[in-house]
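Below is how a single chain appears once it has passed through the pipeline. First comes the sequence as given, then the structure the pipeline wrote out for it. We keep one example in the README because the format questions we get most often are answered faster by looking than by reading.
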Amino acid sequence: MRLGLRGTFRSPYGRVAVAVLLSTATMVLLLATPFALSYLGDMPNTDWARMSDVAETFGAIATLIGALTLGGVAVSLMMQARDNKLNREQTRRSFHLNLYAMAFDDPSLLECWGEVVPPSYSHDEHRQHVYVNQIVSFWSMLHKVDELPEDELRQLTAALFKRDPGRRYWHVAGPYRRALRGSRRTREFVAIVDDEYRKATANTESAAAPGTDPAEQPLQVGRHKS
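Resulting structure:
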């Protein structure tokens, strides 16, 4: 969680909150203006021409503030809609995980999912695949709401791909995730993770036979049955 003024401005919710506070303060000032003008009008030697110019200026500012307020309401509604979408997505993923938990408690139910992972995967490797999927999906959700910047995401994925479970997972799930159309943020997330995966497997790919495309070299995953 980001703390301090810098973190407030980097968060979209913080920026909206600051905008609302500034709009509220300006509206309070505008509401107090007529009373101030009335008070000044009762004073002797009042320059009414100048007072008229000031009133017109504040009228223009009031119109601008009204437009900004409507814009703030529209942005708030959009952010609320996005939050609702993320909540539905989180509920869907929780239900998906519960279904998988039932299957792992009763291995015979795994057959009902079809071929989610290569047949050569052991039971433990299958469980690792599901767990890493939850990790990556959690990162994807954070990235969508600007709570996981690119530099932090690259650090996390680089650490993930230092171990076999992470590399096995992206070898299987990467093509599927790349094929999904998704939103701009989703495509950006997949591109970042894919780039870190290629970096992590660069040493293995550099040992490929001459004349072959390293990106097409298969990663040996799972324990092959004899």
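Confidence is low (pLDDT under 50) at residues 207-226.

See the next section for the split statistics.
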